[in-house]
Design goal:
The chain is an alpha/beta fold. The chain has three domains: about 270 residues, Aldolase class I (TIM Barrel); about 90 residues, no CATH class; about 110 residues, Double Stranded RNA Binding Domain. The protein is built from 17 helices and 16 strands. It has an eight-stranded parallel beta barrel, surrounded by six helices. It has a three-stranded antiparallel sheet with strand order 11-12-13. Helix 2 packs parallel to helix 3, helix 5 runs parallel beside helix 6 and helix 11 crosses helix 15. The N and C termini lie far apart (about 55 Å). Bound molecules: 3-methyl-2-oxobutanoic acid and zinc ion.
C-alpha cells in the first residue's frame, strides 16, 4: 500500500533565521510562489511576533499563495498566538505552529519550570490557538533529547487538546537515526490517540544526519517532514527538501511513500533560493550541487557513456537539470535567456527581462562561459527593490609603486555627488570615497569575496557586513570587476540603513 508524506517547507522561517540570508518582502513572495509551484503542502511563512517585517511577510504570503497551507510559528504564549492568527487573516488554508521545550535541559535550564507545568502550558496553548484556527501543529522543542515516556505524555495531552499535527524536532541535531526512528515508533505505539494526528519530523543537521534521521522517522510512521531548500537553517542547517524527496523517489519500490513534489522544479527552486538568500550551494551537495551529476574520473566517464545507470542512481532531468540545455553566449537571443530563466525558477515581466537581457549581454562580452549561477545572479539583482543610493561612476588607479586612488560618483535620489580618495588598496580607496559622500559613521565588520564558479573571467560575489549605530546591515554585490562588486555590496548595506 502506498502512502503520502506531507512536505512542510520552513525555508522562509527556520532557513531565513540564518544571518545574512534575510529576504525582503518581494523576495519572500517570490520564494513562496516558487514553493507553491514545486508542490509543497505547507509553507511556514514566518514567526509573526518576532518583528513587524515577519508579520507583514506572513500577511503578504497569505495573499499571494493559493493552495498550500500557510503556517505561522509561535511560542506557547497567548500574545504570540493572537499575532499569528491576525497575520494569517488572508490565508486560504491556515495553521498555527505552537510549542515549547520538553527536554530536561529546556524545562529546567531555559524555562525554569517542571514537567507537569510544561504539559499544562502546552495544552493551554493548543486550546487557545484552536479558538482561532482548526489546524494546530504542536512542537515539542528538543524532542530529540526528551525522554520517550514523558514525550508520549505531552503528545497525548496536546492531541486531546486539539493538535492536528505533532512535531518531534531534533532541535540540536543530536540524535542517531536508529534512536530517532525508535522514538517515532514509540509514539505510534504508546500514545493512545496518535491516530488523530499526523507525526512530523524536524531534524537539524549538526552531525550531518538530518536526512538520515528524517527518513528513519518516516519509515517508523511520521507522515510530515519539515525541510528547507538546500538544507539551509540555523547552524549546520535543516533537513534538505531535495534529499528527502529524492530518497523517497529513488527507493519508491521499497518504501511506497509518495510526496506531492514536482521533482523537475527542484533545481530551479534551489538556484532561486541560493541566489536570493546569497547562500551558495556547496559543489558536492547531494542532488543540487554543481558536481552532483558531474563525472570526472576516466573510469566513471567510461561507465556512464556505456550506460548512465552504471554510476547514476537518479536521472538529472528528474530534478530539473536539463543537460541538453542551450549554452548561452553573447549571440543568444531573449527567448533563449527567458527559457533558461524559467528553468531556473525566475518568471520576469517583459520590462525586467529586457533589463536582465541588457546585463546578460554586457556580461557575455566579458565572460564567454555563462553559467546558471551567473544568470540567476543577474535575475536576482534585477528583482531587488529600487535602491536610493546608486553607483554612477567609478574609476580606480592602482598598481605596484602607485598610491591607489579612486574617484566615485553616486546618484542619491537623482542627484549626483563626486569624491576622490586614496587608500591602502583600490577597494579601500573606493570605499573611503563613498564614505566621504554619504558622511556616516559606518564600520565594515566583514568583507568576503568569492568567485561564483571558477576562472579569472568569473563573476566575483562580495558579501559585506557593516556596523552603523550598533546595528548590523548586510550587503551583496556581484560583478566581474571585484572593486565594483565591493562598492555595490557596501552601497547595498548602506541602502538598508535608509529603509529600516
Ligand atoms: O528546531 C526547532 O526545534 C524548531 C522549532 C521551533 C520547531 O525550529
Ligand atoms: Zn528548527
Amino acid at each position: 500500500m502506498n502512502d503520502r508524506l506531507y512536505i512542510f517547507d520552513t525555508t522562509l522561517r527556520d532557513g531565513e533565521q540564518v544571518p545574512g540570508c534575510q529576504l525582503n518582502k518581494v523576495e519572500k513572495i517570490e520564494v513562496a510562489k516558487a514553493l507553491q509551484e514545486l508542490g509543497v503542502d505547507v509553507i511556514e511563512a514566518g514567526f509573526p511576533i518576532s518583528s513587524p517585517g515577519d508579520f507583514e511577510s506572513v500577511v503578504e504570503i497569505s495573499k499571494a499563495v493559493t493552495w498550500p497551507t500557510i503556517c505561522a510559528l509561535t511560542r506557547a504564549v497567548q500574545k504570540d498566538i493572537d499575532v499569528a492568527a491576525e497575520s494569517l487573516k488572508y490565508a486560504k488554508k491556515k495553521r498555527i505552529h505552537t510549542g515549547i521545550g520538553t527536554s530536561n535541559f529546556h524545562i529546567y535550564h531555559k524555562l525554569n519550570s517542571n514537567p507537569e507545568a510544561i504539559i499544562e502550558r502546552s495544552v493551554e496553548a493548543v486550546k487557545y490557538a484552536k479558538k482561532y484556527v482548526e489546524d494546530i501543529e504542536f512542537y515539542a522543542e528538543d524532542a530529540g533529547r526528551t525522554e520517550n515516556e514523558y514525550l508520549a505524555r505531552v503528545i497525548e495531552a496536546v492531541i486531546k487538546a486539539g493538535a492536528t499535527v505533532v512535531n518531534i524536532p531534533d532541535t540540536t541535531g543530536y540524535t542517531l537515526p536508529n534512536d530517532f526512528g525508535a522514538k517515532i515508533k514509540y509514539l505510534t505505539e504508546n500514545v493512545s490517540n496518535i491516530h488523530k494526528a499526523i507525526i512530523s519530523t524536524h531534524c537539524h543537521n549538526d552531525l550531518g544526519m538530518a536526512t538520515a534521521n528524517t527518513i528513519s522517522g518516516i519509515i517508523n510512521g511520521a507522515r510530515q517532514a519539515e525541510v528547507t531548500i538546500n538544507g539551509i537553517g540555523e547552524r549546520a542547517g535543516n533537513t534538505s527538501l531535495e534529499e528527502v524527496v529524492m530518497t523517497l523517489k529513488t527507493h519508491y519500490n521499497a518504501l511506497q511513500i509518495e510526496t506531492g513534489i514536482n521533482t523537475k522544479k527542484i533545481y530551479g527552486t534551489s538556484r532561486l533560493v541560493s541566489t536570493l538568500m546569497n547562500m551558495p550551494v556547496q559543489p558536492n551537495k547531494a542532488v543540487v550541487g554543481r558536481n552532483a551529476f558531474a563525472h570526472s574520473s576516466g573510469i566513471h566517464q567510461d561507465g556512464v557513456l556505456k550506460n548512465r545507470e552504471n554510476y547514476e542512481i537518479m536521472d538529472p532531468s528528474d530534478v530539473g537539470i536539463d543537460e541538453s540545455a542551450i549554452l548561452l553566449t553573447a549571440r543568444s537571443g531573449r527567448a533563449a535567456l527567458k527559457h533558461r530563466l524559467e528553468l531556473l525558477g525566475f518568471e520576469l515581466s517583459k520590462e525586467k527581462l529586457d533589463e536582465v537581457y541588457e546585463e546578460f549581454l554586457n556580461l557575455a562580452d566579458k565572460k564567454k562561459d555563462i553559467r546558471d549561477d551567473d544568470i540567476a545572479l543577474l535575475a536576482g539583482d534585477a528583482t531587488r527593490q529600487e535602491r536610493r543610493i546608486k553607483l554612477d561612476f567609478l574609476q580606480v588607479v592602482t598598481g605596484k609603486s602607485l598610491i591607489p586612488m579612486a574617484t566615485v560618483r553616486l546618484d542619491i535620489a537623482g542627484e549626483k555627488f563626486d569624491a576622490t580618495s586614496a587608500g591602502n588598496g583600490p577597494v579601500d580607496a573606493a570605499i573611503k570615497a563613498v564614505k566621504q559622500i554619504i558622511n556616516r559613521q559606518v564600520t565594515i565588520e566583514e568583507f568576503l569575496v568569492q568567485a561564483i564558479t571558477r576562472g579569472s573571467d568569473d563573476v566575483g560575489k562580495v558579501h559585506m557586513q557593516i556596523d552603523y549605530d550598533n546595528k548590523y546591515f548586510h550587503g551583496f554585490g556581484t560583478n566581474t570587476d571585484i572593486i565594483i562588486a565591493s562598492v555595490e555590496a557596501f552601497l547595498d548595506a548602506i541602502n538598508k540603513i535608509q529603509v529600516k
